[in-house]
Amino acid sequence: MPDPTVPEPRQMPYAWWTDAVVYQIYPRSFADGNGDGMGDIRGVLDRLPYLAGLGVDAIWLSPFYKSPQADGGYDVADYRQVDPLFGSLADFDAMLQEAHRRGLKVIVDLVPNHTSDEHVWFREALAAAPGSPERNRYMFRDGKDEVPGSGDGKRAPNNWKSVFGGPAWSRLTDADGSPGQWYLHLFDTKQPDLNWENPEVQEEMRSVLRFWLDRGADGFRVDVAHGLVKEAGLPDWEGVAAMVEGTSAPRLESHLPGDAPHAHTDAQEPHRAVSPMYPPSPFFDQDGVHAIYRDWNRVLAEYGGDRMMVAEAWVEPAERLARYVRPDEMQQAFNFDFLLAGWDAERMAEAIDASLAAAASVGAPCTWVLSNHDTVRHATRFGLKDPTTFPKGIGAQDEQPDAALGLARARAATLVALALPGSAYLYQGEELGLPEHTTLPDAARQDPTFFRTQGAEIGRDGCRVPLPWAGDQPGFGFSGTLSADASGPWLPQPGSFGPLAADQQDGEEGSTLELYRAALAFRSSQQLGSGTVEWTDEHEPDSGLLAFRNGDVVVVSNMGFASAPVPDGYAVALSSGPEPAEDRAAMREVPVDCTVYLQRVQ
């Protein structure tokens, strides 16, 4: 009997990424295949039927490389090895082969801005002298003298701050015990930045690309794509850089207990984005990055033109982001403007218009994303008093969301995203309606941002909690059967995950899992990913109504405070609300916090 999760191959040339739905897998937390409490590649392989049945087109795996895991694998010690924590290269090859058999593309995460401090190159740099070829692979610099001319080099080369909090420079101690040079790390101290002016670095990363392309990888998600090139001279800068939102305007204020004053915004939250960037950052979005991606584009072209790259670039405004997806550079870039719009019709409409226009100006597809491994899950953000806020994690001492309201809005926002032309990215577990773990004990936290900011930023652990697969099993089935020496999932799960487990929602009408399956099937059948957006007469974003036509489908999302009528001549084909199917067809009003797909009555 044919396997329904193995599709028929396409019959014509097709750039698959232009309208693909991509499912992000954070391997540590997706599924544990060997029972040790840690997610792994075998777990991904075991769950491929689930993913194919969900209706996605591709999977993107966050880093699984050999790593000391100081930043969840984004500190790479060897770009060509799978960390034993996750399995082996043979496991990867088996997973890739089976994914392809089921019609799923596989995107791997590339981390080119920095390595781990345990990478062989950095170890060689530590053993070498200042000015050596080994140190020239990284950003080593002499310090500034505390008193000019003293020669003590006690001050960091400049005033840059780490995205994770604290200074962006650390000083070495030489073998004889004396203070040595400083090295740059825009993130954690264990993530030294590479020197992308060095041809050896450029050639090494080309080799890494080819290594995974030769194994059959279909593309790369490029981490910190805007950060590889730094401004010549490394000038001081008074701004603040943050993940996702980009760069904010400065206000001198102490951020950490005992820390030197540095830049913040005037908003309550310290890293709210402003546009345009002010002042321009000397280490993000430098023009020199584009030569790198034109070079990589040529590498991918060696493999038949069916491979892709997607940029994680915290760049504003949309016109700057579009430069990363010009025809000779990357194929996609994450659309953080849409993610940051929150549950607000006016902001979402503005993000849609700006994003579509910017992408069209360079002939690239848009992307739509609501959650990822660096953000508070949108089912939780949308349940806060202000559903447009973007907290840096949520702890037990913070405002707790309205879970039911957040989930209703999350379901509604998902239907908007999946009806837009271009490519959609889903974060693991959002198809289950998973909330953020907002009461995770501090003792369980592992995100370096929590420690580097002394808890001022709660960090990203709450969105990285292992998934629930079976509601009545230990660890909600994340590990299947735990091995004798395993104590449970690597991060504790909240009790609220039990009723949301995949087996509890499977086949249940109105469940979030079934909504995602229906929405993805509808998107495919109506070819919404290759369509266009036309705002309809019902579109009144200042009143909370977002409404557009894509092909034969009208999408109405009610983000206001009163029900909205269904336009005459249309019937509801799909609703984010929990109404039974027989009631949906007869719906004449769009409830608040609900999105509907409408089709003309024949």
UniProtKB/TrEMBL annotation:
Matching Gene3D superfamilies, A to Z? Glycosidases, Oligo-1,6-glucosidase, Domain 2
Q: Biased composition, Basic and acidic residues: where in the chain? A: 253-272
A Pfam family found in this protein is Alpha-amylase
Give the region (Disordered) as residue ranges: 253-273, 485-509
- What residues does the Glycosyl hydrolase family 13 catalytic domain cover? 24-464
Q: Which InterPro entries match?
A: GH, GH13_cat_dom, O16G_dom_2
Family (UniProt): Belongs to the glycosyl hydrolase 13 family.
Q: Which PANTHER family match?
A: ALPHA-AMYLASE FAMILY MEMBER, NEUTRAL AND BASIC AMINO ACID TRANSPORT PROTEIN RBAT
Protein name according to UniProt: Alpha-glucosidase
Species per Swiss-Prot/TrEMBL record: Arthrobacter liuii
